Amino acid sequence: MSHEPSTGATRVSSGAAFVEIRGVGKTYRSRRGDVAALSGIDLGIGSGEFVSVLGPSGCGKSTLMRCLAGLEHVSSGEIVIGGRSHDGPPEGLGVVFQRDVLLDWRTVLDNVMLPIEVHRLDPSGWEQKARELLALLGLTGFEDRHPWELSGGMRQRVSICRALLMNPSLLLMDEPFGALDAMTRDELNLELQRVWMGDAKTVFFVTHSIQEAVFLGDRVVVMSPSPGRIVEIIDVTLPRPRDLDIRETPEFGAMVRHIRGLFLSMGVMKAARHGRGVAAVGG
Ligand SMILES: Nc1ncnc2c1ncn2[C@@H]1O[C@H](COP(=O)(O)OP(=O)(O)OP(=O)(O)O)[C@@H](O)[C@H]1O
Ligand SMILES: [Mg+2]
Questions:
Q1: What integer pLDDT is reported at residue 15 of this predicted model?
Q2: Is 44 helix (H, G, I), strand (E, B) or coil?
Q3: Global pTM value
Q4: Residue 100 Cα, ligand 2 centroid: separation in angstroms?
């Protein structure tokens, strides 16, 4: 699947989707009772497609992502990735969590190189790739620093480098920029788009921000409150590469309003007061 800029076309997979989520339900069982987190999730994600997932707090976004990552068993249905049903971490996977999971006693470079150690690979062939990724994400000169010397945005960039190092075909991101200030978030949105357009990765991107979901996604999946179901899937037909000004266009505004309307109708969001727009959903 090519990522040529400015085609304006939404990526469509040929044949079967790369990721097939079929009738997936998830119930957590505990002594305090059962929690139905997901119900009847059906979603196909094309190879190279960027799918944003939006939903109120507690609707099961992280649960779905953990099921895709093989970190959680589904209670019903199945997940097929690259034609193979999986019930464990699939191959070729990169994951970025909401809070970065960097090891403070290792340098930036050694944090990025961690997967190589975990997979017991020869590090010599990978260090150059790690340095290139750090450069791509604007971290040249910080290779020998430690995570505690970095800002939140820089730490999250290191996490992204680590997730990308082994060239995953599927990248799962759970609110990776949720804790960042608006300007850093904008910057990382642009960088993520650039990285994604340069390489045919399939991305599953969980966010609370309607604007971020529309800005980044080929499609936006909107989920209902718990137990999470898919309410609507919106095609984002805005041309790429998208710059931040696209958020000021009538097309972008219409999509954001439409999604906000879905959350208003679900009772998840209250109407904006005193002219202050509501961009975030739930928590
Ligand atoms: N390990 C667990 N055991 C029991 N219940 C859980 C567990 N993890 C999540 N849940 C419950 O499952 C539901 C979905 O949780 P999940 O973390 O997937 O939501 P979310 O959409 O990611 O929320 P947020 O936007 O706040 O991150 C919630 O009701 C939560 O309390
Ligand atoms: Mg979550």
A1: 59
A2: strand
A3: 0.89
A4: 14
